[in-house]
Design brief:
alpha+beta, eight-stranded antiparallel beta barrel, about 220 residues, 12 strands
Length: about 220
């Protein structure tokens, strides 16, 4: 065999092997400081509901910062923890007319399955990158394909910094994802809410502020 061909083949094989070794997909868990928010307009106000706190937003994402495009995962939001500032309205949202989440474990969680990320480059520590997170949103058993306009921020800590932040549950690597996307009540087999004789908009604006920390 031609010596040049042999050398070229070995070089190509070495580059391929290095690329495989360099690919480090790892699991990041949703941190307890993460939150999810929904907004919908009514004639006399904008209704804002927020889910936050320990156990309210959970899940994990597998991600290689060098190849974030291939990210996969699942994020769950506890609809029973949703607060709009009015207890009676919160109870109504959990009823069978809307989320049907109270006493019905199958509908308790809004679920976003991450299918991939459209992003121009690898993640660099200390740098925010615009992205579009593609996936499937499931509420009340009704799944809708969607894409969230997002900003992704990647953080790496020194061993000394990790030691000082352990009590807050932070790790050597963290990723913050701020995302916005839209759906509608009728997309998920819910009727459009009505306050007195005034109907609320069918459109729902969703926002998520996720902090992902490296799994143990």
């Amino acid at each position: 065999m031609n010596r040049k061909i042999v050398v070229s083949s070995l070089v190509a094989l070495g580059v391929f092997a290095w690329g495989v070794a360099d690919a480090q997909t790892r699991t990041f868990n949703v941190h307890y400081t993460s939150r999810a928010t929904f907004k919908t307009d009514a004639p006399l106000e904008t209704i804002v509901g927020t889910t936050a706190g320990q156990g309210s937003v959970t899940g994990n994402v597998t991600l290689d910062p060098a190849r974030p495009q291939e990210a996969k995962g699942r994020v769950r939001v506890d609809l029973n923890a949703l607060k709009t500032g009015i207890d009676r309205r919160d109870a109504h949202m959990r009823s069978k007319d809307f989320f049907d989440s109270e006493g019905n474990e199958a509908n308790r969680w809004a679920v976003f399955d991450v299918k991939g990320i459209e992003i121009a480059s690898a993640l660099e520590p200390g740098k925010s990158v615009p992205a579009k997170v593609r996936g499937t949103l499931t509420i009340r058993g009704k799944a809708v394909d969607t894409a969230a306009d997002s900003t992704v921020y990647y953080l790496k800590l020194t061993p000394e910094q990790v030691e000082s932040q352990k009590r807050y549950g932070l790790t050597a690597e963290s990723v913050r994802v701020s995302a916005k996307f839209a759906t509608a009540f009728t997309n998920h087999a819910m009727q459009v809410p009505q306050l007195l004789f005034l109907k609320v908009s069918n459109d729902i604006q969703l926002e998520a502020d996720l902090v992902l920390v490296l799994a143990p």
